[in-house]
Amino acid sequence: EFYTAYTPYQPEISQGTLQNIYEFQTIVCELFGLDVSNASVYDGATAVAEAMVMACDKKKTEIVISRGLHYEYCETVETYANGMGFTIKYADLVDGVTPVDSFEAEATEKTAAYVVMYPNYYGCIEDIKSVIDAAHARKALCIVVVGDLSAMGILEAPGKLGADIVVGDGMPFAGPLGFSGPSIGLMAASEKLGRKLPGRIAGVTVDQEGKRALVLTLQA
Hints:
This protein is 28% helix and 22% strand. It is an alpha/beta fold.
C-alpha cells in the first residue's frame, strides 16, 4: 500500500503507481505486438468501441465488423455508433470464419476499419493477415479483438501481422469481479495512432539530476 498509495498526477510521490502503469503497458504491447498501449479502459467491449472512435473521422464513418465478434461487444459498439453518427455493417461468416469477400461485400469509400475477433466468438481462428491486408488496400484500418488472451501464447501477435489497433479483455488474467467490476479493457496501437488512444500513457524519462523518473507522458 505504500508503493501505490498515490494517484499518478503528482509524479514526485507516485513513482510506484506510475511504474505499475508503465509495466502494465509494456506487457500489453509485448502481448499484442504493437508500439504503444494506454492504461486500459473499462472492458473489452468498451475497448472495441473506443478503437472505432480512433478509426473514424469526418469522411470515414463506417465500420465493417465480423459476425464472429462477441454479440455483447457488438451491442456496445452499436450504442457508441448511434450517439456519434457512425454506421455499423456486418461481414457474414462462412464455415465459422470471416472470409475477406464478406468484408469487401460491405465496404465502401466511407469504411474506416474492419473489425475481426481472433480467435472469434465461436473459437475459430480467423485469417487475420488477409483481413488486415484487405483493409489496408482500402486505406482503412484493421482492428483485431483478441478473443482469448491465453491464445496469444500460441498464435502470432496481431500487431506483428500488421494490425493497427488491437484490443481485448484482461479479466481472464485478473481477479474476480466485485460489485460489477472492475474489468480491464486492453488497448494497443501503432505509434502513428498513439495520440488517439484514450486515457493515459505513462513513460520513463530522467529528472534534472539525471535519475530515472516515471511520468505521465500523455493524458486525455
